[in-house]
């Protein structure tokens, strides 16, 4: 259950040093602080359950993807919840002028989907977790194809990383960024009047019964289903809507009611 909405001071108005003591690269600190100043002006924030974000220790944050601007929405939230946003990001971002330079300066992790282990991305992410840091992953791999914006089928990278490292999977759901900058189709940004962006952290995805299991395809798909189920429920909470039956399969271009993988 999400925390009640009380009339409290905007947590985003606090200086970053007052809410985040986690070590980070200078480039990441400067970039997040600068972008936060912009986000405070172009968004209204409905931030919920930030206390569920572990302030220390390894953590894999799994996030739904709805817009090209939602990394900034999520990054603003997670930084002011006490952790720095360190994404596993597709390689094409690092080839983009300016954006790629910023990503490298901020210590983001490049994923090369055409190479085994993402071109070393999983090893780099595992090392960050072993050092007590966190990583943020979009398990869908791209902005959702679901026509109504619901989470779609996920990829298994986050599940594999959780089994390998033992780090908890922390779901963070968001809604509203698509009203600033559209989903799959790029639209002209709508910055004013400021749109409300909603972000919520859920309880860790329960995979205790699968810890120690070999990373077979079935086990990874089962964990991924649990991740996406958790994110879908949280998005439903933010939208105050009942999620649809079934999940969008981008290969089939329709929602599919999955088989009950819990019966292994």
From TrEMBL:
Q: Which UniProt keyword terms apply here?
A: Acyltransferase, Transferase
Q: Does the keyword Repressor apply?
A: no
GO molecular function of the protein, one example? 1-acylglycerol-3-phosphate O-acyltransferase activity
Q: What's in the GO CC field?
A: plasma membrane
- Cite a single Pfam family from the UniProt record: Acyltransferase
* Signal sequence interval, chain numbering: none
Phospholipid/glycerol acyltransferase domain segment(s): 59-177
What CDD domains does the record point to? LPLAT_AGPAT-like
The protein here is known as: 1-acyl-sn-glycerol-3-phosphate acyltransferase
Organism expressing this protein natively: Naumannella halotolerans
């Amino acid at each position: 259950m999400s925390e009640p909405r009380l009339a409290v001071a905007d947590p985003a108005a606090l200086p970053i040093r007052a809410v985040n003591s986690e070590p980070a690269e200078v480039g990441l600190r400067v970039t997040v602080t600068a972008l936060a100043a912009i986000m405070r002006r172009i968004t209204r924030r409905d931030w919920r359950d930030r206390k569920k974000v572990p302030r220390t220790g390894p953590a894999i944050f799994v996030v739904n993807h709805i817009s090209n601007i939602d990394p900034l929405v999520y990054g603003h939230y997670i930084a002011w919840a006490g952790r720095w946003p360190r994404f596993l990001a597709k390689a094409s971002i690092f080839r983009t002028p300016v954006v790629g330079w910023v990503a490298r300066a901020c210590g983001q992790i490049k994923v090369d989907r055409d190479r085994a282990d993402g071109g070393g991305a999983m090893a780099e992410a595992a090392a960050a977790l072993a050092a007590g840091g966190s990583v943020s992953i979009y398990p869908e791999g791209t902005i959702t194809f679901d026509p109504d914006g619901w989470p779609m089928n996920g990829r298994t990278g986050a599940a594999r990383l959780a089994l390998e490292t033992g780090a908890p999977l922390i779901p963070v759901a968001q809604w509203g960024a698509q009203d600033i900058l559209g989903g799959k189709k790029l639209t002209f940004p709508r910055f004013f009047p400021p749109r409300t962006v909603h972000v919520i952290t859920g309880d860790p995805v329960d995979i205790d019964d699968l810890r120690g299991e070999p990373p077979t395809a079935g086990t990874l798909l089962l964990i991924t289903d649990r991740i996406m189920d958790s994110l879908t429920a949280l998005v439903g909470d933010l939208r105050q809507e009942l999620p649809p039956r079934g999940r969008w399969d981008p290969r089939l271009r329709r929602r599919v009611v999955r088989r009950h993988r819990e019966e292994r």
